[in-house]
Prior knowledge:
Elements: E1 3-12, E2 15-25, E3 30-34, H1 41-49, E4 56-61, E5 64-65, E6 76-80, H2 91-100, H3 110-123, H4 139-151, E7 157-161, H5 169-186, E8 189-194, H6 197-203, E9 206-211, E10 214-219, H7 221-226, H8 231-238
Parallel strand pairs: 3-8, 3-9, 6-7, 7-8
Antiparallel strand pairs: 1-2, 1-4, 4-5, 9-10
The protein binds adenosine-5'-diphosphate.
Amino acid sequence: MSITIENVSKFFDNTQVLNNISLDINSGQMVALLGPSGSGKTTLLRIIAGLEQHNSGYLRFSGKDVSRMHARDRNVGFVFQHYALFRHMTVANNIAFGLKVLPRRSRPNIKIINYKVTCLLEMIQLEHLANRYPSQLSGGQKQRVALARALAIEPEILLLDEPFGALDAQVRKELRRWLRKLHEELKFTSVFVTHDQEEAMEVADKVVVMSNGNIEQIGTPQDVWYEPASRFVLEFMGEVN
Ligand code: ADP
């Protein structure tokens, strides 16, 4: 599913935090929203998710205006740094959760739910931990479960907000590989928020550099690195976190 963002602006009270943003994301693309803290990345992601309303402009999924569509009807999966697993549920039940709460008409029967959970556990190679609780998992394993949970409903769009932010460098690297692998297998469209240049370069097909509610540059990781479109991009790409 493609995402078209056209002249989107957003205000909180009287402060403008997104300034006439336009961006096309092709179906199956993995796009990183990259920029310093406060540049508007999360707000843009939440608008795509339907968790926040924009004040002007258009948002379309495969050409269809979804501005007024409720978040739960948008067929979008989320992985957020602070969107934790349910502590009182096993790994398997965490993954099954999204399927069990689907409206009755689209909810699969329990056999199909169990089969899907088994497939997802295989995909993230955590079959052996199906009956554990989140507190018994490492940080990296938890976020693999979070990925599987988000993908269980077969979303056409997966949104990730600093999903690996709380993890150490080695585990982050491993999780980026997991994300790429799942993306190659399942071919969802993905938007990934990060303030980490290396993460954006490694994960994304297309990088969108943001600052102060504006898009500074849209390009491949190579474009952004070798041909920064502004002084801001040049300096930001050179900064080490
Ligand atoms: P980023 O994800 O790049 O760190 P955000 O989208 O979270 O940026 O925030 C952009 C700006 O909007 C910031 O100045 C932030 O303080 C402000 N902001 C975000 N959410 C709210 C809110 N719910 N109410 C008021 N201001 C907000």
